[in-house]
Design a protein that fits this description.
Chain lengths: 328, 506
């Protein structure tokens, strides 16, 4: 038992207790949480900082405003409705198009036709707090629907894959791609069954994947190899993630980025308590990188510099003797 | 920096907690283990007499200072008599009085004492006794004896020893023979000794007491000799001349007056009976602390009404449950719903017993969860949805109770003691986890909650621990210190060793 603990410690793995006490409590003051928990605020702050985000079509924050919905989407063919303070991807409705004959009939991404009143009912539910965990009234966000890049078509099922970058004191330290599976219902959440694939910070190339706590090589639905994919505009992605620190003020942060076919990388959301499975996906502990950042930390460095330092320093090579399926 | 404060605070709390604990344990004698019973002696004096027509007054000598023993309580049993306790010369006296009665009477005085080696006699120093008036020829005999013994002794103690040696010599001195040969009984013998000692200006008293043995019906008081050496009282066996008191000797009264005097009665018969019991040593420690005026006990849980004490007996175990939660969650890493929900479930297990509790809990959550999924389709807001689940849970409990009663299973009735709000919250949490993370995670967290509840139940149900925490609530400060220290633990959880095992390879 202690031997196992020593080995993990030697590998520099960050545990939950240490994450909570030494990272989140030290680096993420609670009063800053609304900046990441409320997606409207996150988007506004990101826009102010000049970051690319999915375009916001409109916000509906009270039942009285629900009827504005029709005006907001008047000229849009596809869009996404999501709760501002939702969690776990619940309450997200993706509209992929409209009926040609009747503009008030909408087609969801899974192919169902929805009437205008059904959609209004959904918006009203979101505003009423149906999907917010606290049960408090919420706002509904109507935003640009990401058209995802063909790069990940082979290794995702349904939904949109995203890139999670862990940013420590403004420096990107680790990254992974989260690939939706049939089991995750198209959601890119690892604990819902999505596959996470580590990304080498230096090259922006994917490594092997992790499903649950197990290491995998192939996507469980498509069977395609998850490793070896080169993520486009990697410099820009790292730089955007690094900026997330200034935008939110959080010292330990997970930045979720999607790559749009037309508009490039867009910041989807940020997370004040990112999970730890990213270490398994990268076969690498966080602590060593974190210590390195602590050593070279420079308050003056801007996001571009920080991203460049990270890119120079953090290389993960695919190891030949990597234990597969965790049973080594 | 913070770390040092944490250690300092923990050390401070531990010091206070353990300090009070040791004081109560060592000084006040609170028992560490519940079944630690102290022997307690009940001495019953019965006075029987035939009352003459008219008023009755009965006086009984009762103990005052009893080296080696402490009194727990005393009471009298008599029918219609007025009772009072008075201090008189030589000690204390119980008095019964009745205006009019006739026929055979019995009155009882009971005294409950426990052994306490620390109980010392703290009597005042007596004045030198006046020389007794003794008629000739006895006076000359006494004079000769005293002069002779004084020559062969150095101080009060050796004087007394020498005197006793001579008096008990098988072939005594003629003077001794003259003085003691017609002694009626041992008491008279000791009484004469005190007269000789008084003649030598040595304060001496006859004491009479009872050697305590279990289950004695008729005990005769044993006379003993007590001599003051100007500093303290020393005791002598009047026959052997040995110094000290017999084992378990309870001094009942001092002086040569009779044990009992009854005016208005005849055929007076006094009898001592002794009975040994075992009493929870907590009550003894309490009584002792009360006599000593210890504020610690004055404001302790034992001063509360019994029913409230029972409530605290349960409440004080909650910190132990919390300690278990900290350990199981932050050190082992078991997933569960809510922070303290397992502790509350464990509390309700106390009423239902473990097996039934676990079965009922599982049943309620399963049923509640299926209802919750039906409600899900109605798309209700959070508070109305929770309230609906709560109402359903209450109805389910009622149905389980009624059905199990009809089936003759009485345990089903205790389901009502389940904290229903907690169950409703559990159901809600579980359904959210179910939706967000899937059935596997929800099941795992539910199983984790049940496991934690069982562990907490077992820990909180340990009788010795319950006793320890209730008797020494200050130990909760130590628990607090441990929890604070655990709060600084930033190492791995046990389950993380499995989770990250793929990273453990070299």
């Amino acid at each position: 038992m202690f031997g196992a603990a020593r080995k993990i410690r030697k590998a520099g793995v960050l545990g939950l207790n240490e994450r909570n006490s030494d990272f989140i409590m030290r680096l993420n003051p609670r009063h800053l949480y609304p900046r990441v928990d409320d997606k409207v605020m996150t988007k506004r702050l990101a826009l102010e900082a000049g970051m690319a985000v999915p375009e916001l079509y409109g916000v509906i924050s009270s039942q009285g405003e629900v009827r504005n919905f029709v005006d907001i989407v008047e000229s849009r063919e596809c869009f996404v409705i999501k709760p501002a303070r939702g969690s776990g991807g619940n309450g997200i409705l993706v509209i992929a198009g409209r009926s040609k004959r009747n503009r008030s009939a909408y087609r969801s991404i899974s192919g169902d036709m929805l009437s205008q009143s059904e959609i209004l009912h959904h918006v009203s539910n979101v505003v009423g707090g149906q999907y917010s965990l606290s049960g408090n009234p919420d706002s509904a966000i109507i935003e640009y629907c990401v058209k995802f890049d063909a790069l990940f078509a082979e290794v995702s099922h349904l939904g949109v894959p995203d890139i999670r970058v862990i940013v420590y004191r403004g420096y990107p330290v680790m990254a992974m791609v989260r690939l939706p599976t049939r089991k995750s219902g198209g959601k890119a959440n690892l604990h819902q069954g999505a596959v996470g694939a580590g990304v080498d910070i230096s090259s922006g190339e994917t490594l092997h994947g992790v499903l649950g706590n197990e290491v995998v090589e192939d996507h469980p639905d498509t069977g395609a190899l998850v490793s070896g994919l080169r993520i486009p505009q990697w410099d820009f992605i790292l730089e955007s993630a690094a900026k997330g620190c200034e935008v939110t003020g959080l010292g330990y942060l997970g930045v979720d980025i999607v790559i749009d076919r037309d508009r490039g990388p867009l910041i989807l959301e940020m997370n004040a308590r990112p999970g730890l499975n990213i270490q398994i996906a990268n076969s690498c502990g966080l602590l060593e990188r974190v210590r390195y950042i602590d050593d070279i930390f420079d308050e003056e460095a801007d996001a571009t510099t920080r991203a460049r330092i990270s890119r120079r320093e953090f290389t993960t090579e695919i190891q030949g003797n990597l234990p597969l399926n965790g049973d080594a | 920096m913070t770390k040092q404060y944490v250690y300092l605070l923990a050390a401070f709390l531990t010091a206070i907690g353990l300090g009070i604990f040791f004081y109560k344990w060592q000084e006040l004698g609170f028992p560490l283990v519940e079944d630690q019973h102290t022997p307690v002696w009940t001495i019953e004096t019965s006075i029987k007499f035939d009352a003459r027509p008219g008023s009755i007054k009965a006086n009984l000598q009762i103990p005052t200072l009893t080296p080696g023993f402490n009194m727990l309580r005393e009471y009298n049993v008599s029918k219609g008599y007025g009772f009072s306790l008075n201090y008189v010369s030589g000690g204390r006296e119980a008095q019964w009085a009745l205006r009019r009665t006739s026929g055979p009477q019995t009155i009882y005085y009971r005294r409950v004492v426990y052994e306490d080696a620390a109980s010392e006699q703290s009597d005042t120093t007596p004045p030198f006794p006046p020389p007794p008036v003794i008629n000739e020829p006895l006076k000359t005999a006494v004079d000769v004896i005293v002069t002779d013994v004084r020559e062969h002794s150095a101080d009060t103690a050796s004087f007394t020893s020498e005197l006793l040696r001579r008096v008990n010599d098988p072939s005594p001195d003629p003077n001794i023979e003259l003085l003691f040969s017609d002694a009626r009984d041992p008491a008279d013998f000791v009484d004469r000794l005190t007269t000789i000692l008084a003649f030598a200006r040595i304060p001496a008293r006859m004491i009479r007491g009872i050697v305590l043995q279990d289950q004695q019906r008729r005990v005769d008081p044993l006379p003993w000799l007590e001599v003051h050496d100007g500093d303290r009282w020393i005791y002598f066996n009047p026959i052997t001349g040995e110094e000290g008191l017999p084992d378990r000797y309870l001094i009942w009264w001092r002086g040569n007056q009779p044990l009992v005097s009854v005016t208005g009665g005849r055929n007076v018969e006094v009898n001592f009976a002794v009975q040994k019991n075992f009493v929870d040593s907590v009550s003894i420690a309490e009584e002792r602390a009360q006599i000593e005026g210890s504020a610690l006990v004055e404001f302790s849980l034992f001063s509360l009404p019994i029913q409230t004490q029972a409530v605290y007996g349960v409440l004080l175990m909650i910190p132990i449950g919390a300690l278990i939660m900290v350990f199981m969650r932050n050190f082992v890493g078991i997933d569960a719903f809510g922070t303290f929900m397992p502790v509350l479930i464990a509390l309700s297990f106390r009423e239902t017993q473990l097996l039934w509790g676990a079965i009922l809990f599982t049943l309620l959550v399963t049923l509640g969860l299926s209802i919750r999924f039906l409600l899900e389709r109605l798309r209700l807001l959070l508070v109305p949805r929770l309230s609906a689940v709560l109402i359903v849970v209450v109805l389910l409990m009622m149905i389980i109770s009624v059905v199990s009663h009809k089936l003759g299973i009485e345990t089903g009735l205790s389901v009502a003691l389940f904290p229903m709000v907690i169950i409703a919250m559990t159901i809600e949490r579980m359904s959210i986890v179910w939706e967000e993370r899937g059935a596997v995670d929800a099941m795992r967290a539910a199983a984790g909650s049940l496991l934690l509840a069982v562990v907490a139940y077992l820990a909180m149900g340990m009788p010795w621990l319950e006793h320890l925490v209730f008797t020494f609530p200050e130990l909760l400060l130590v628990v607090l210190a441990i929890v604070i220290l655990m709060g600084r633990y930033s190492g791995y959880r046990l389950t993380e060793l499995a989770r990250f095992r793929s990273l453990a390879g070299d």
